[in-house]
């Protein structure tokens, strides 16, 4: 395609919004030199264009990805959008340009820098989401279980099916403190209502009950008791349980106050 001009796009931060930017780029024959969400400062020498999210246009692009590049590319793009890689929108856009040019073979172009960076970012996302299957710690706040995580990537969409299936008869909320997102499932009588993912900029929790604090002490005591001093290997522990996860792990807290989740209130 012959591009008539270069432009920078600003969108609402949603996946459909990003796909709408891709549509506009091809429709206007504009090469996108920057794509950023509206809440991110945009410093560019090029004209910035606000792109409204259009579900019809987004759907056309997504179906086009499947038809031209394949279902695996659709999955790669969805996961890539959840990563913390720098300038992810521009990386995804460049991958799609390659995909629409070369078709399904782009998935195997591993020496191409764009493809390599995207696959590496998605691998990091999936590794982190797998780690959180074992590093989520819930606290009981009466009618609901609450857990706080601080991931680098947006892992909640990948964790949803696991925890909704595992706690299918429980009301729970997992709060992603890094990205201001939450996953919630609400139990009402015999029915389970999966609220799903939503934006949550703040979460203020009440003080944990005495019963909850007792369970935390018991869990930490169990963790300390089963440890075998002769086999203590801090380096191996850091390898399997990186220190960045420790802040929200009950067994790694040093006091009752530090064991409590982030001081934000649940409304």
TrEMBL record:
InterPro entries named in the record: DNA_repair_put, DUF4130
Tell me the Pfam families matching this sequence. DUF4130
The organism sits in which domain of life? Answer: Bacteria
Using the record's annotation, list all stretches that form the DUF4130 domain: 87-251
State the name under which the record lists this protein. Answer: DNA metabolism protein
């Amino acid at each position: 395609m012959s591009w008539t001009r270069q432009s920078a796009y600003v969108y609402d931060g949603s996946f459909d919004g990003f796909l709408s930017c891709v549509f506009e780029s091809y429709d206007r024959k504009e090469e996108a030199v920057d794509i950023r969400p509206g809440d991110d400062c945009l410093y560019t020498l090029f004209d910035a264009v606000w792109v409204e999210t259009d579900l019809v246009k987004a759907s056309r692009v997504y179906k086009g990805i499947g038809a031209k590049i394949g279902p695996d590319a659709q999955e790669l793009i969805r996961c890539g959008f959840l990563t913390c890689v720098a300038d992810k929108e521009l990386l995804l856009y460049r991958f799609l340009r390659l995909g629409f040019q070369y078709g399904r073979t782009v998935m195997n172009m591993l020496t191409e820098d764009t493809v390599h960076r995207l696959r590496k970012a998605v691998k990091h996302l999936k590794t982190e989401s797998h780690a959180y299957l074992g590093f989520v710690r819930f606290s009981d706040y009466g009618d609901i279980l609450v857990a706080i995580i601080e991931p680098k990537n947006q892992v909640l969409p990948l964790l949803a099916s696991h925890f909704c299936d595992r706690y299918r008869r429980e009301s729970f909320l997992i709060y992603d403190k890094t990205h201001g997102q939450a996953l919630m499932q609400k139990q009402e009588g015999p029915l389970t209502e999966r609220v799903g993912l939503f934006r949550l900029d703040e979460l203020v929790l009440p003080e944990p009950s005495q019963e909850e604090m007792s369970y935390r002490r018991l869990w930490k005591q169990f963790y300390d008791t089963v440890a075998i001093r002769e086999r203590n290997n801090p380096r191996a522990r850091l390898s399997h349980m990186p220190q960045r996860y420790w802040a929200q792990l009950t067994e790694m807290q040093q006091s009752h106050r530090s064991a409590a989740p982030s001081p934000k209130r649940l409304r």
